[in-house]
Amino acid sequence: QACGIASDVSCPSQEHNVSINNQCSLHPYEISFHQLGWDHWIIAPRLYTPNYCKGICTRILHYGLNSPNHAIIQSLVSELVNHSVPQPSCVPYNFLPMSILLIESDGSILYKEYEGMIAQSCTCR
Amino acid sequence: KAGLPSTALLADNPTLPSILDLAKEASGKEVKQWPQGYPLRYMLKLYQRSADPLGHPRENRTIGAKMVRLIKPSANTVRPPRGSWHVQTLDFPLASDQVAYELIRATVVYRHQLHLVNYNLSCHVEIWVPKCGTKHSPSSKSGSSKPSPTSKAWTEMDITHCVQQKLWNRKGRRVLRLRFMCQQQNSNETLKLQGHGLTSLDVAFLLLYFNDTDDGVQAKLLARGQEELIDRESSFLVRSVR
Q1: Is the ipTM of this complex over 0.85?
Q2: Which segments of A1-125 does DSSP mark as H helices, in order?
Q3: Confidence band (pLDDT; 50, 70, 90) for A15?
Q4: pLDDT tens for residues A59-116?
Q5: A118 φ, ψ to 5°?
Q6: Count of CB atoms within 10 A of residue B190's CB?
Q7: CA-to-CA separations, B93 to A64, B176, B210, B217, B236, in angstroms, rounded
Q8: Chain B environment of A47 (Cβ under 8 Å)
Q9: Do A43 and B43 touch (CB under 8 A)?
Q10: Which residue of B has its CA nearest to A37?
Q11: SS3 assignment, position B214
Q12: A-chain residues within 8 Å CB-CB of B209?
């Protein structure tokens, strides 16, 4: 069924069950280190925006999701061949670092840049 | 406290970002005490210069390091006065994650002016490491090229060479000992500073700047790989000549 693969050919049944805003996408999310119970050792920043990825990875993986061909195959297998094979997952693709000022248990003060702290884009894998 | 992954998971997976290791450690141990005074202000200024309010590292940051540790002295002893000099010895423990991080710079920030009730003192520090004599007169400029965020009473002195050459690669527990020496400005009278609480006063702290050794390790691995490749090729060449 070409409609299931080529993104410019939509399948009638496809249109009903996956609207655009359900598709895999990045969701902004802000927390405080107090909510994580870490504010007794993190001096700065107060707020942290890890963001998260959520949504359905349909067969029509819209452009820009950086998904490998494998994701399309897996979604077809899941739908047409074997339902026990899960649909691809919506996960972060690019990350941003974050600088944290914290207190170590010996009382030293540490400035440190941590990689992979903020989700910047999503992908279906 | 938010649930943390079980320590077994953390322990099994040493490559987890060290923030989780720290969280595990910190959630277990309450921090001794929240820092205050000039050391905290110094690091807050360094942080604000290096990251925006949401913690995103600034593109134009100038610290040139991925990690900066401010270490306060673990021991601070007042020595018997020597003539007109007041002397304190300060011990700084050099804990290190040598595997993951490479020391790229070390400085000591100290008070070069000390105003007590009836004394105005001029101070400097000396490193207690053989053949590492560094005697500095007060100067507001730090040894480094980068403007250090010190106030007019504090000075930053670069001691990278001493720490890297003499201490950093030593085995076992490594302690950097400094002598903090003060003299009354324009007077040679003997100082009687007992009771001024000098051992609890922040008079100096150490700053160690680190970078990840990842690329360092990568570079070394590549270099070693290339060496092996070259060795094999050269022996191959010898064989083909035979």
Answers
A1: no
A2: 12-17, 69-76
A3: very low
A4: 777 777 788 999 999 999 999 999 999 999 999 999 999 999 998 888 899 999 999 9
A5: -125, 125
A6: 12
A7: 50, 6, 16, 26, 51
A8: 53-54
A9: yes
A10: B1
A11: helix
A12: none
